[in-house]
Amino acid sequence: MMERFLLQSMDTEEKFYKYEEQRLKTEENRREAEHAREFQMLQMLGQMLAGISSTVSQRSQYMPSNPSQRSNHRSYGDNFNYNSMTTLSPPIVIERSFSMHKTHSIKEMENIFQLVRNIIPPLTAKKHKGQDGRIGIVGGCQEYTGAPYFAAISALKVGADLSHVFCTKDAAGVIKSYSPELIVHPVLDRPDAVHEVEKWLPRLHSVVIGPGLGREDVLLANAKDGLWLIAQQPSVIQNYPRAILTPNAMEFSRLYEAMLRDPVDSNDQHGCLLRLSQALGNVTIVQKGERDLISDGEKVLVCSHEGSSRRCGGQGDLLSGSLGVLAHWALLAGPEKTNGQNPFLVAAFGACSLTRQCNHQAFQKCGRSMTASDMILEIGAAFNKLFET
């Protein structure tokens, strides 16, 4: 009896170890597959950025060639949103202040609001469809269809004429059902995804990368968003001056540690923001939080416009969509309309203020039940209140 029991125990133990060995091997294979897919996504993002950069090179014959003018172009021209002018390449978004002071006078705040008003193009009967903005949103998978919709519809409601969404096949039908105004391309899970997105780049003025990329088991697998990818391999965005990043606190920490190999100093938020922007090549960064901090590596702007205590999902997508439009408008307006300020700082301050105003107005009506959809309904009224009154 005892012998039989011992044999059964040995047999059970052997089966357990075989099962455990198989489980560990399966887990190892899963991780290897994830790493391979992550690498594919990084390659795709890098190829897309290279495509945008090549557009800059092809149009460089229209650019000023002397050093001082080229230096100004770095400040005024390059970003992740797309400019409709034929002399500039499209910019990209992957989510105030005139000094390092923590507080700003009412006059200073009004001055920067005026700069935002200056970049808003007038509505005239002579314009054609697409002239005020053709925006691309790269994101959307089976699990996350709301984020790309929020970004795309926000861009339209701010004033863009056309909004394209590049998503996976599973997400396309759902996103189309949200709004007939959106142009939806189900291409991100195709083998030729890079080519399918790249061929649209010359027609777009701004590109927003990241809303709802998800962790689906496809080409874009394990990519929470564009910022997650950049944290894994910062070189894909480093020294790309037309980029605007919109990280929250956690995403900012990951980016900071990836670039500077040190933890964020919570007592020196402005300094950390400046250092990260400089480390990335003076990329514009909007650090979202209780106060939105905006920097191009040279100065820090603080947007503390009144919002609410409600933090619903989707607010960052509203911000990135509106920022895509405003960045295009800021480039189109030129340095004379921004009073020599970096146009992306002006655009970012406008987008942050607008998002906060939408949050405030929606909360006044809905209270605790407020969602991002309620905020989007407020875009028109909030825009008029801030910039057209």
From TrEMBL:
Q: Which reaction does it catalyse?
A: (6S)-NADHX + ATP = ADP + phosphate + NADH + H(+); (6S)-NADPHX + ATP = ADP + phosphate + NADPH + H(+)
Keyword set, alphabetical order? ATP-binding, Lyase, NAD, NADP, Nucleotide-binding, Phosphoprotein
Keyword Nucleotide-binding set for record? yes
GO biological process annotation, one example: nicotinamide nucleotide metabolic process
Q: Which cofactor does it need?
A: Mg(2+)
State the SUPFAM superfamilies in the record.
Answer: Ribokinase-like
Q: Which CDD domains match?
A: YXKO-related
What does the UniProt function comment say about this protein?
Catalyzes the dehydration of the S-form of NAD(P)HX at the expense of ATP, which is converted to ADP. Together with NAD(P)HX epimerase, which catalyzes the epimerization of the S- and R-forms, the enzyme allows the repair of both epimers of NAD(P)HX, a damaged form of NAD(P)H that is a result of enzymatic or heat-dependent hydration.
Q: What is this protein called?
A: ATP-dependent (S)-NAD(P)H-hydrate dehydratase
